[in-house]
């Protein structure tokens, strides 16, 4: 696995897929229903026949006879004898009159007697000591009751000092001098709570508390007996005078979690006492007197409580909250029935998890009622019996019973000399099969009967910790190191040790037969399903040495054979090679997706391995591998969060599994091993079959990798413990220590965070050892031996580089320091991709301290490249950095690498902020160049960016996100590089942009610059054509530039109209919104007309729009001109015709020669018309001079006026004569003006316009003018207008004199 510590690990790597598979199996194991979910009906009585049929729920391991010394004491019996079990100290206790004996049944020889008092002992109990009363040596307190007094003995129990081969610990009794008088009452039952309270029941029916403290108080005694059930009056009446007699109690049990005390009375009723949330109260909350009647109502088959079969309760057993939140007590009757009681209301019991998840466990009981009746098993079960079966059950005679975590043991009287221990336990496979078919399954149990010698006095579980409540009901959850639950049954013949049998024990029993029948094996597989059967094979094959004596070579060989021959093959879902049975375990644990999107079911061998591996890792999987704790008087330091014993136990199982896989090359069967690779009836192609095997091989490889990593991770954690992690962590920074704290074992093995943590811890370990002058090679050897995969060759190079840098910093010789720094750089360059960003920063700081600045840049950039060999970060950046993209982590890793270089440059900016210094940096990494350019912009070093002439400047300035600053820099860069065409294109884009906040004036400036640069670009291309041969590509380039030039010029013209509109609106005032809108973008002529000019009656702008668009609408244009000129003429503040002349001149200079916006005949006619209306203001030459001043050439004015004259003269009205005369005078004035200009050097030639082209821009057609004057003279003669005639003749004569 690569040591990429960037946190940018690929998703769904094989190791992560294996981790998900392991967690899926763990969750499946935890989904086994709790006991209350299986007892949702009012009663049940279903028992299954085991496979094989002679299987026992518990098997008798050995009988430990009572020691001879005890029989000798028994011969001296004068009055009474009692016996019982103290599993807490691995002892049986026996009282003979006043003598108390403790016998180590584990050792079978240790025998201890207590005879320091003379009274007959009537009861003995082992309880927890009250905190703060006794010394730490006293682990338990033994309560001994006699008719005269009840006293306490301190019990010291040292498990470290084992006696004998099997152990049992050393017991020491201490006299405490704490006692209370019994007042002649025989205490029949004694129990204690976890917080030290002691309760006793007497044969007088009273319930007492033995209250004690360390010393006598002013008003309190050191010890006292409190009658909890008597009234206040009873305190003043002597015991022998009391006449009140309550029903005596038979036994008591304490629920320490729920703070409840249950008391069983001789009349088979049960009292429930609430001890308070803090355990310091005593309140009777319920007294159930009709238990048998309630049971009969729930179960018609319950027949106890009749004359033929009296109702008695043989045992009460607490159900802890971990086993059920709703059921709190199970009472076992003398007939073998189990009565499950609840202190939770009926409706709440239907919501085991949801309704009670936030409810405190210790609260006062609401009710106390029977929730379920479980009928007894058969004394000798042979066939499956169900509640629906109406056959009568054989009556049991149970006198002692035991229940814990789903397992029930009933001592049934077989005959005078023997008892039968009837065991019952959940049938896990059958329950899981039913859950797969229906949402809620009922309890189904396996039962068996084992005969023992003698009459049973007590039953106890030898080590209750072996039945973890979270997994006890599901016996399938077993690995090779899972301890067997063992029970001690005390009788007058001795102690019988019984071991509870699990499905794996059933499996071993089955395959231990000399001749294993295939039918039996297939029946077993059908019962437990193929996956679980294969998991049992692994459990058997990976048995530890402690259990090897019970597993024969025949069993091991049979398990191996079953694993390979019956383990199945991977196949598509519709071609099942084996019937895996029905299981509640999700198929997801063994699925893979083929390329055809069909589901592939992996083999049972694969799934069995995944199940076994999950169960092996479960104890440590979610535990914190490292935790931060504050030691006394010191700062917070790291510690190993998992007990070393748990780590080593799991590692031992994994190593055995690894050993088995390594020694069995046929673990993944194929054709070479002559094993079937597909079912005989399969129609699949060879390619499909191959895809199935590829999926299985990939998943098996991932599981093996996970197993190997887990083994090495455990070794590494143990190594850290050996070197004292608390001391090592003193050299870790506080923030890093917090990051390392709380990492779970699963994260430590499977995640990038865990790999980072591992490397940080290795680095801290090596630094710690280097401080102690240890050799790095010796440390590397240890790490390579114990966790070679976690500590790779790259790690060796890394730490050697650290050592070189450390030595370089300590040496005073410059050449030696440089050599060591170079050596470190060479080592680090090869492993740059494995460096974390924190490590890279530390290394760069070390190089900077040595003055090796080039090494900082070289290593950082190499780290970036090796961390992203496929350049995914650049692709991510180029795609616009989308959210939730897996490439984002790689991008950030590379940016952190570049940050090391830029931070170094920033510290030395006075020395490096020049083109030469920056150009020396490597330039092949585009992403680094972009980061460098960002830094230059941040430092306002625009000129340096151009001077560097880097290969990525243009790309950097062109890519998103684009800003106005970057775009300005881009066209400046193009001009700097003589790429004027590209600069013109960028400037035009800026002018047309909608994204940037650019005002209209700036947009016009960009268009002007674009036009100028485009013209320069065209000239440069034409210049190249002049120097070189004609190139078609260059012709295309010129055409493209010419087209862009035309478009830009048109756009500039429209933009100027837009500017005109904006200025008009500003001058009008009150139009802020449209003024601002005109700044945001460039509008088309249509938009300008429709949105601004026409609605706002901007007449001048409308004419400009007509010119720009060349839109021809004579009628509308005439209306606009009339509106404009009459508005000016009618304005009282203006000078009449003079103002009209000024307006026409202004507009003409901008609109002429556009016929659409400045139709010359129309405008000339309007001027004539206005002159007629204002004769007092009119002077000859007004019309012609106005048009000439509007930049209209003399010849064009002549043509317009002559056209009007001709049209007017043709009319018959008298009014037309005045207009004609005025037009004739205007033409005479125009001609005189033109002659004066010509004579003053205006460039007029004497060529006749009809005979040759006019070369001058304002040349009058002399012949046409002369002919027109002649016609005007004739008309004036006819109209008897001598004055006009003489004036026209003078002009004509002047023309003829000159031309």
Give a brief description:
This protein is of the alpha+beta class and 1299 residues long. The protein is built from 45 helices and 35 strands.
Would you give an account of this structure?
46% of the residues lie in helices and 16% in strands. Strand 5 and strand 6 (99-104) form a beta hairpin. Helix 23 (853-867) packs antiparallel against helix 25 (887-907), helix 24 crosses helix 25 (887-907) and helix 34 (1032-1068) runs parallel beside helix 36 (1085-1093). Among the domains are: 14-31 and 518-791, Methane Monooxygenase Hydroxylase, Chain G, domain 1, CATH 1.20.58.1780; 44-500, 7 Propeller (Methylamine Dehydrogenase, Chain H), CATH 2.130.10; 813-948, Alpha Horseshoe (Serine Threonine Protein Phosphatase 5, Tetratricopeptide repeat). With 1299 residues, it is of the alpha+beta class. A 5-stranded mixed sheet has the order 1-23-22-21-20, covered by helices on one side. The chain has a 5-stranded mixed sheet with strand order 2-27-26-25-24. A 4-stranded antiparallel sheet has the order 3-30-29-28, with no helix packed on it. The chain contains 45 helices and 35 strands. Residues 603-1278 form the Nucleoporin Nup133/Nup155-like C-terminal domain. Residues 60-497 form the Nucleoporin Nup133/Nup155-like N-terminal domain. Keywords: Coiled coil, Nucleus, Transport.
């Amino acid at each position: 696995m690569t040591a990429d510590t960037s946190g940018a690990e690929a998703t769904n790597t094989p190791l992560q897929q294996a981790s998900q598979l392991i967690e899926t199996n763990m969750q499946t194991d935890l989904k086994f229903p709790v006991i209350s979910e299986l007892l949702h009906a009012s009663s049940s009585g279903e028992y299954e026949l085991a496979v094989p049929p002679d299987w026992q729920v518990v098997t008798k391991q050995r009988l430990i006879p009572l020691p001879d010394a005890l029989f000798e004491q028994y011969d001296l019996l004068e009055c009474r004898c009692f016996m019982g079990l103290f599993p807490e100290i691995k002892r049986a206790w026996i009282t003979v009159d006043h003598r108390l004996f403790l016998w180590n049944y584990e050792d079978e020889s240790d025998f201890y007697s207590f005879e320091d008092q003379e009274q007959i002992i009537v009861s003995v109990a082992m309880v927890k000591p009250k905190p703060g009363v006794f010394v730490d040596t006293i682990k338990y307190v033994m309560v001994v009751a006699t008719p005269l007094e009840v006293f306490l003995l301190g019990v010291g129990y040292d498990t470290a000092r084992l006696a004998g081969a099997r152990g049992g610990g050393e017991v020491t009794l201490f006299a405490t001098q704490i006692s209370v008088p019994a007042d002649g009452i025989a205490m029949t039952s004694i129990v204690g709570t976890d917080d030290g309270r002691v309760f006793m029941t007497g044969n007088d029916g009273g319930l007492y508390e033995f209250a004690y403290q360390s010393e006598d108080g002013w008003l309190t005694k050191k010890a006292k007996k409190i009658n909890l059930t008597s009234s206040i009056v009873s305190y003043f009446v002597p015991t022998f005078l009391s006449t009140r007699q309550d029903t005596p109690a038979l036994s008591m049990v304490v629920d320490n979690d729920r703070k409840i005390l249950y008391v069983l009375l001789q009349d088979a009723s049960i009292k429930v006492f609430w001890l308070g949330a803090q355990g310091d109260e005593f309140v009777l909350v319920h007294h159930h007197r009709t238990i048998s009647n309630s049971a009969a109502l729930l179960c018609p088959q319950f027949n106890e409580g009749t004359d033929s079969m009296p109702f008695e309760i043989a045992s009460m057993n607490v159900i802890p909250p971990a086993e059920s939140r709703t059921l709190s007590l199970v009472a076992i009757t003398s007939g073998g029935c189990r009565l499950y009681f609840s202190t939770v209301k009926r409706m709440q019991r239907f919501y085991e998890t949801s309704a009670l998840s936030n409810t405190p466990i210790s609260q006062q009981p609401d009710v106390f009622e029977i929730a379920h009746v479980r009928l007894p098993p058969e004394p000798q079960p042979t066939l499956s019996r169900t509640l629906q079966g109406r056959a009568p059950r054989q009556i049991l005679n149970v006198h002692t019973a035991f229940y814990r975590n789903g397992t029930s043991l009933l001592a049934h009287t077989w005959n005078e000399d023997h008892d039968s221990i009837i065991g019952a336990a959940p049938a896990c496979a059958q329950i899981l099969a039913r859950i797969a078919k229906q949402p809620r399954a009922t309890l189904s149990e396996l039962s068996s009967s084992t005969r023992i010698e003698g009459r049973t006095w007590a039953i106890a579980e030898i080590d209750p910790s072996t039945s973890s409540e979270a997994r006890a009901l599901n016996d399938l959850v077993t690995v090779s190191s899972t301890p067997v639950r063992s029970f001690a049954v005390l009788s007058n013949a001795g102690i019988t040790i019984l071991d509870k049998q699990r499905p794996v024990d059933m499996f071993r029993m089955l395959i231990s037969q000399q001749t294993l029948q295939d039918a039996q094996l297939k029946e077993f597989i059908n019962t437990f399903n193929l996956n679980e059967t294969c998991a049992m094979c692994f459990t058997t094959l990976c048995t530890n040495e402690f259990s090897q004596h019970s597993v024969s070579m025949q069993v091991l060989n049979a398990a191996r054979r079953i694993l390979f021959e019956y383990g199945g093959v991977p196949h598509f879902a519709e071609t099942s090679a084996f019937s895996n049975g029905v299981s509640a375990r999700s198929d997801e644990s063994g699925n893979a997706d083929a390329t055809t999107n069909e589901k592939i079911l992996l083999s049972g061998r694969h799934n069995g391995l995944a199940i076994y591996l999950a169960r092996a890792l479960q104890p440590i999987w979610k535990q914190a591998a490292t935790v931060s704790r504050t030691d006394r008087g010191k700062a917070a330091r790291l510690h190993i969060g998992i007990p070393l014993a748990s780590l080593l136990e799991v590692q031992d199982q994994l190593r055995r599994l690894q050993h088995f896989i390594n020694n069995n090359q046929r673990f993944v069967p194929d054709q070479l091993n002559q094993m079937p690779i597909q079912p005989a009836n399969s129609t699949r192609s060879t390619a499909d079959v191959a895809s199935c095997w590829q999926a299985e091989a990939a998943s098996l490889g991932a599981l093996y990798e996970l197993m190997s990593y887990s083994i090495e991770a455990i070794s590494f954690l143990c190594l850290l413990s050996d070197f004292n992690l608390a001391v090592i962590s003193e050299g870790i920074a506080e923030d890093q220590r917090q990051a390392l704290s709380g990492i779970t074992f699963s994260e430590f093995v499977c995640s990038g965070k865990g790999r980072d943590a591992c490397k940080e811890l290795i680095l801290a370990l090596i630094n710690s050892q280097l401080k102690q002058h240890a050799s790095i090679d010796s440390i590397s050897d240890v790490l390579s031996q114990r966790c070679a995969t976690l500590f790779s060759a790259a790690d060796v190079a890394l730490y050697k580089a650290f050592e070189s840098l450390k030595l370089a910093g300590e040496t005073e010789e410059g050449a030696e320091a440089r050599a060591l720094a170079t050596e470190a750089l060479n080592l680090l360059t090869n492993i740059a991709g494995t460096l974390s960003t924190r490590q890279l920063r530390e290394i760069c700081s070390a190089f900077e301290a040595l003055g090796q600045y080039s090494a900082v840049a070289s290593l950082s950039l190499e780290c970036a490249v090796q961390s992203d060999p496929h350049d995914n970060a650049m692709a991510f950046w180029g795609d616009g950095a989308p959210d939730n993209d897996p490439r984002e982590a790689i991008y950030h890793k590379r940016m952190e690498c570049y940050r090391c270089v830029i931070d170094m440059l920033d510290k030395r900016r006075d020395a490096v902020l020049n083109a030469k210094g920056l150009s020396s940096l490597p330039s092949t990494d585009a992403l680094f160049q972009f980061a460098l350019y960002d830094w230059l912009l941040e430092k306002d070093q625009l000129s340096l960016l151009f001077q560097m002439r880097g290969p990525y400047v243009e790309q950097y300035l062109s890519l998103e996100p684009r800003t106005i600053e970057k775009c300005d820099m881009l066209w400046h860069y193009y001009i700097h590089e003589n790429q004027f065409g590209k600069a013109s294109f960028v400037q035009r884009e800026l002018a047309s942009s909608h994204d940037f906040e650019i005002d209209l004036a700036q947009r016009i400036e960009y268009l002007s610059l674009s036009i100028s640069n485009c013209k320069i670009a065209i000239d440069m291309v034409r210049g190249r054509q002049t120097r070189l041969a004609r190139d078609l590509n260059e012709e295309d380039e010129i055409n493209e530039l010419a087209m862009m030039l035309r478009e830009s010029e048109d756009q500039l013209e429209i933009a100027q109209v837009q500017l005109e509109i904006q200025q008009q609106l500003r001058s009008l005032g009150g139009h802020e919104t449209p003024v601002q809108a005109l700044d945001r973008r460039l509008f088309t002529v249509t938009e300008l007309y429709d949105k601004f000019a026409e609605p706002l009656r901007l007449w001048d702008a409308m004419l400009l729009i007509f010119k720009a668009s060349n839109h021809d609408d004579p009628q509308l244009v005439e209306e606009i001109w009339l509106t404009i000129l009459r508005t000016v003429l009618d304005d009282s503040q203006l000078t009449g015709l003079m103002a009209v002349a000024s307006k026409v001149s202004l507009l003409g200079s901008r609109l002429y020669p556009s016929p659409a916006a400045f139709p010359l005949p129309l405008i000339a006619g309007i001027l004539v018309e206005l002159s007629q209306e204002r004769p007092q203001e009119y002077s000859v030459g007004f019309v012609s001079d106005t048009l000439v001043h509007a930049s209209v050439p003399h010849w064009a004015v002549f043509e317009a006026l002559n056209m009007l004259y001709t049209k007017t003269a043709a009319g018959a009205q008298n009014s037309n004569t005045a207009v004609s005369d005025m037009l004739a005078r205007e033409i005479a004035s125009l001609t005189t003006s033109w002659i004066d200009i010509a004579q003053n050097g205006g460039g007029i030639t004497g060529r006749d316009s009809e005979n040759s082209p006019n070369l001058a821009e304002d040349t009058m057609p002399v012949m046409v003018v002369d002919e027109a004057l002649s016609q005007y003279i004739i008309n004036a003669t006819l109209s008897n207008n001598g004055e006009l005639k003489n004036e026209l003749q003078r002009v004509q004569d002047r023309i003829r004199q000159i031309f």
